[in-house]
Amino acid sequence: MTKNNDPLASLISSNAKATDRKKLAELLKPYMVIDQDSKEFSFHSALYDVDGNDTKIEILLAGARARALFFNLPDGLSPGEVIVAGLMPEGSVKTSLKKLFDSHKIKKDKEGRYLLPAHRIQELIKKLGS
């Protein structure tokens, strides 16, 4: 069987990363921008209007993923970095992170940084109607 006739060939893409980046940008555009120089997040009012701290954290972690991809920085955020973002009361951050982690919606690396898995981007787009 040649590669052209192989049914699995339809699953192979040389542009999968570009598709992921496009979806990530689509998700984040209504909620934030990333400063070119400082690499800090600047939030649009729509992010403050999102219902639920869990969803706000997921959007923030998606922003961390975009920043990591574009600037070649480590992915994810520590609980302290989520607190500094100021999107929710400090006492809610660790509870929300634990809830998201325990439900396998986010991951945690060896350094204690929380990350949004790539497959969750499309789920968030559908959830938020972006």
Explain this structure.
The protein is mainly alpha-helical. The chain has one domain (15-128): Arc Repressor Mutant, subunit A. The protein contains six helices and four strands, in the order αββααααββα. A two-stranded antiparallel ribbon has the order 1-2. The radius of gyration is 16 Å and the shape is globular.
- Topology-level CATH name: Arc Repressor Mutant, subunit A
> Radius of gyration from the CA trace?
16 Å
Order of helices and strands: HEEHHHHEEH
Overall number of strands? 4
- Quickly count the helices: 6
Mean pLDDT score: 90
Low-confidence stretches: none
Count of discrete structural domains: 1
CATH 2nd-level architecture: Orthogonal Bundle
**Helix content estimate:** 40-55%
Q: Outline the biggest β-sheet.
A: 2 strands, antiparallel
What would you call the shape?
globular
What is the beta-strand fraction? Answer: 5-15%
Q: Give me the side-by-side strand order of the main sheet.
A: 1-2
Class based on secondary structure composition and strand pairing: mainly alpha
How far is it from the N-terminal to the C-terminal residue, by CA?
42 Å
CATH class: Mainly Alpha
Describe the protein's topology:
Blueprint: H1 16-28, E1 32-34, E2 41-43, H2 45-49, H3 53-71, H4 79-85, H5 90-102, E3 107-108, E4 114-115, H6 120-128
Antiparallel strand pairs: 1-2, 3-4
Helix pairs in contact: 1-3, 1-6
